[in-house]
Amino acid sequence: MLKDALPKINTPLPGPKARAIIERRAQAMPGAVKCSYPCVISRGEGAMLEDVDGNVFLDWVGGVGVLNIGYSHPELIAAVKEQSEKFFHAMMNIVTHEGYIKLAEKMNQIVPVKNKIRKTMFANSGAEAIENAVKIAKSFTGRPNIIVFSGAFHGRTLLASTMTAKKAYAYGIGPLPDGVYRAEFPYLYRGPRGYNEAEAVEYYIEKLKKVFDEASPAEYAAAVVLEPVQGEGGFIPAPLEWVKAVRKICDDNGILLIADEVQTGFARSGKMFVSNYWEEAGCAPDIIAAAKSIAGGIPLSAVTAGAHIIDGVKNGIIGGTFGGNALACASALKVIEIMERENLCERSLEIAKKCREEFGKWMEEYQEVGDVRGIGCMMGIEFVTDKKSKTPNPGLVSDIVACAARHGLIIESAGAYSNVIRFLCPLVVTDEQLDCGLEILKSSIEACR
């Protein structure tokens, strides 16, 4: 079975069938929707995919965190098929369907926002979840501004791309919305030289407070929005002590704390959400935006907040035609059931332990491996020219990504300097596949150094 297979490359990449389809792609769709990987998928199972030429790849990107339970889980197929035989769609503004209610009830149970009495709404994408979370915060507080961070990625819609730090994602689409102000995220690897972690956390908290002095007074800020682990920014985890301090600033000033768990959610971190760790430390967010792996690949996103917050929204501000689609809700309910039953949070920590040990060895062995970081199974390896200068090495990362693909391992870069390799492998990967992937990645590093 494909789900138990190992990488196997039979043709030069791309193979002849893939090449023909990629040529059609270039003629039919915009080049700005970029893809440099030399394969065209024909089917996928578990953490493996097969292309149209019969080449088999191990996928360590998983649709950028969408496939935590893997490709084409049979129970997911059955759940979506069963729902499809009843009806595909029922818009919640017109006719209520119970799948939406069941999923909202489940999300209210498992999503660790600060208020224990919770409500959830659904949309279609991570960017939509973020935009709705911001609308909810502004409507509830009556305040116009939000605070975001350096290195952030929140999506490609107009507000989300304004919130996103890297302006390559918003080039030429201005004017951008007002009321979005940026503080410095605690990127400890590239933080102030000579500072220990406690000193660095204090430094970054002072940077946040400076925004209130120089950009938006605290009383005009509706929300602080942050990723518990920055994705596109380079897989940089927010230090827990910093999150505690941010939570206190929010509480002292009537500001809501929004966690963008679009990429970090659904067992990736070793808990269902990174915010579970925050909750244990007494600094749970007020609102959580989730998407990606929520429905195993069917478009769906969610915003969960305290009932008092979300009920403060004026009629007509939130909602939409396809939000909480019946097929997507059926899929999401089954995804959560599988994650809980198969203990994928625990499996995430097992995978992370093995990878972190191996990545740690590479850090000692290779001058170019500058940092290894992350939470659970969301890890990044930052590549530099040398450990002393920490000069980013995006060329090496680009070569490693290409080399690994030629040997059947799909990995992806990230980071402000494009010098980080991200690890988002499906949590259903087998031990043998994981070992094989580590071997391919290591040999690719050695070949490209």
Kindly provide the radius of gyration, computed on alpha-carbon positions and rounded to a whole number of angstroms.
22 Å
Structural category: alpha/beta
What distance lies between the first and last C-alpha atoms, to the nearest angstrom? 35 Å
Oligomer: single chain
**How does the overall form come out from the CA principal axes?**
globular
Number of helices: 14
Give the strand content: 15-25%
Strand line-up across the major sheet? 4-12-11-10-7-5-6
Number of strands: 17
Mean pLDDT metric:
97
* DSSP helix fraction: 25-40%
Largest sheet: 7 strands, mixed
User: Low-confidence spans: pLDDT under 50, at least 5 residues?
Assistant: none
Keywords:
449 residues; single chain; alpha/beta
Provide an overview of this structure.
The structure is a single chain. This protein is α/β, with parallel strands linked by helices and 449 residues long. Helix content is 39%, strand content 17%. The protein is built from 14 helices and 17 strands. The strands form four sheets. The chain has a seven-stranded mixed sheet with strand order 4-12-11-10-7-5-6, sandwiched between helices. The protein has a four-stranded mixed sheet with strand order 1-2-3-15. Strand 1 and strand 2 form a beta hairpin. The longest helix is centred in the C-terminal third of the chain and has 22 residues. The chain is globular, with a radius of gyration of 22 Å. The model has no long low-confidence stretch (mean pLDDT 97).
